[in-house]
Amino acid sequence: MKTGFPENFLWGGAMASSQAEGGWDQGGKGLDTQDLRYFDPAWTREERAKKENRRMSDAKFRAALTTDDTVHYPFRHGIDFYHRWREDLDLFQELGIKVLRTSLCWARIYPNGDDPTPNEEGLRFYCDLFDECHRRGIKVFATMLHYNIPVNLVQKYGGWKSRKTVECYLRYTRTLFERLGDRVDYWLPFNEFNAGKFNPYNGVCLVEDQESDYQNAIFQCLHNQFIANALTVKQGHEILPGSKIGGMIARFTTYPATCKPDDVMQMILDDQYSNWFYLDVMARGHYPAYMDRYFAQQGIHIQMEPGDADILRENTIAFVSFSYYFSQVSTTDQGWEKTSGNLIMANKNPYLETSEWGWQKDPVGLRVTLNQVYDRYQLPVFIAENGLGAKDVVEEDGSIHDPYRIDYLKAHVEQMKEAVKDGVDLIGYTMWGFIDLVSCGSMEMSKRYGVIYVDQDDAGHGTLARSRKDSFYWYQRCIRSNGETLD
Ligand code: BG6
Fold first, then answer.
1. How far apart are alpha carbons 289 and 381 in whole angstroms?
2. CA of 212 to the centre of ligand 1 (A)
3. Which of 8, 189, 304, 425 has the most CB atoms in a 10 Å sphere around its CB?
4. Report field, pTM of the whole predicted structure over 0.70
5. Which residues of the chain have pLDDT under 70?
């Protein structure tokens, strides 16, 4: 029996280009889809949560193309990592992380997505960043796409609806393997594959009111992404034999709301449709049979090309990863109380407490998830995201006391350890937003995940100075002791 984390366990931190970098119009970068998301710092908490304020519309899309405002477009400034990354790495090194998970910005490398040659300045940014990580003993876990694609691909090809976008993506990934291959330790072609279904603008870059058959378009895009994913795996293995390329979902762990058999069946269906479908295609190499029934019921018709089934079968992922923030329950009771969750509205579990944003905190659910995922695929597992979004208060002396974050992280690490004892081959943990970032869902700064504080408010005002929260020292001790010292 294993008694603790493996010696080479990859403790780390995760972030994404659009939420961190800024420099939206610098270094030859093209406009990308996250640069167009509108936010009003004056919105109330309720307005921030409203679906229509989060959703991209044709009108919002067009208006964003004509402005260089950054206050209402927070992904344009991020936390200015583009200019501050060297000093940030000093803090990352002090924290002791073994691996940095970040995404590359496609539009920084191919500004229009379909350019014949890459932007050398964009490539240099990532070469320098990853070289410096390695010089400091930090491995690199690179997400090739974390939502933001060049806007030109949406305008010209309808985003992921077209195989032309797959072709452009493969030109981009080829460049990454060829030019950055020796600087990357783990690859992830797509962040949270199921985001395409639950947040189609982020995941598959569809603008809802530009589509005549939105649901069908979503699944067509997802199919094209599955093909892109498999062909990226193929390409990676050809260019860099032995490269480690994984697949990721946002894990919506779910329990039956009651032991009523209908609720149990509902849980199985929710799990298949929301979670397993995506990992099954990437890890098992084919569309699962349960989706035939779903597609028939929903009137979904995916256009596949000859050879697609072979592509999926021959190019499966080498490790499984997921983000895990909360759990929910499944029920046939339409009136069941709801609460928020990452990407979805969730059914409430009376046994769990929620975060300030309504996400249900469930550390044991992480152990459940790890066991489920490992049982199903028998592949190494990497927790690519986990953390607590909360409001922090800076004291007069500059200190930030965040026991709520420490409690959350501690409880989750304890359950990870239990899962390792259960026999799960857990290889890494990259805490989400270990440095405060612009929130992906609500686009605000006030929802902070970091153990490193960034002095910036929702309107983008502040010195951008970084400082250590109490949780910084907690995570540092956790890493130093390889998960043994959690107090
Ligand atoms: C994940 C995303 O869905 O959740 C991240 O991959 C995101 O980009 C994270 O930031 C937390 O969500 P939010 O909406 O609180 O930022």
1. 24
2. 28
3. 189
4. yes
5. none
Cα angle 31, 37, 42 (rounded to 5 degrees) comes to 135
The reported pLDDT for the residue numbered 343 is 81
Testing ligand 1's pocket by substitution, the residue of 342, 357, 388 carrying the most ligand atoms inside 8 A of its CB is: 342
Residues β-bridged to residue 198: none
> At CB < 8 A and 24+ separation, what contacts does 468-473 make?
468/91, 468/400, 469/392, 469/400, 469/401, 469/402, 469/405, 470/399, 470/400, 470/401, 470/402, 470/403, 470/406, 471/402, 471/405, 471/406, 471/409, 472/95
Q: To which residue do tokens 């936390």 refer? A: 79
Q: Which two tokens stand for residue 165?
A: 């976008």
C-alpha–C-alpha distance, residues 227 and 173, integer Å:
13
Region of residue 159 (phi > 0: left; psi between -120 and 50: alpha; otherwise: beta): left
SS (H, E, C) 391-405: CCCECCCCCECCHHH
Provide the pairing of β-strand 99-103 with 10-14: parallel
Element (H, E) at 302: none
In this structure, the strands spanning 246-250 and 338-340 are unpaired
* Other Cβ atoms closer than 10 A to 62: 11
Residues in the chain: 487
Superfamily (CATH) of domain 10-480: Glycosidases (3.20.20.80)
What are the DSSP calls for 8-42, one per residue?
T-EEEEE--HHHHT--TTSTTPPPBGGGG----TT
Q: Hey, which residues does 250 pair with through a beta bridge? A: 323
Atom number, ligand 1, closest to the C-alpha of residue 447: 15
- Tell me the chain's radius of gyration from C-alpha atoms: 21
Tokens of 218: 């979503």
Are the C-beta atoms of 105 and 143 separated by less than 8 Å? no
Sign, Cα dihedral of 290, 426, 409, 98: negative
CB-based contact 297:267 (threshold 8 Å)? no
Which residue has the CA at smallest separation from atom 15 of ligand 1?
Answer: 439
User: Ligand 1 centre and the CA of 197: distance in Å?
Assistant: 15
Predicted confidence at residue 484, as pLDDT, reads: 97
Of all protein residues, whose CA lies closest to atom 8 belonging to ligand 1?
A: 440
Residue list, ligand 1 pocket, CB within 6 Å: 16, 19, 191-192, 250, 323, 342-343, 385, 389, 432, 439-442, 447
Nearest-CA residue for atom 14 of ligand 1:
441
Q: Is the dihedral of CA 436, 441, 447, 449 positive or negative?
A: negative
Cβ atoms of residues 370 and 376 within 8 Å: no
Question: 336 in helix, strand or coil?
Answer: coil
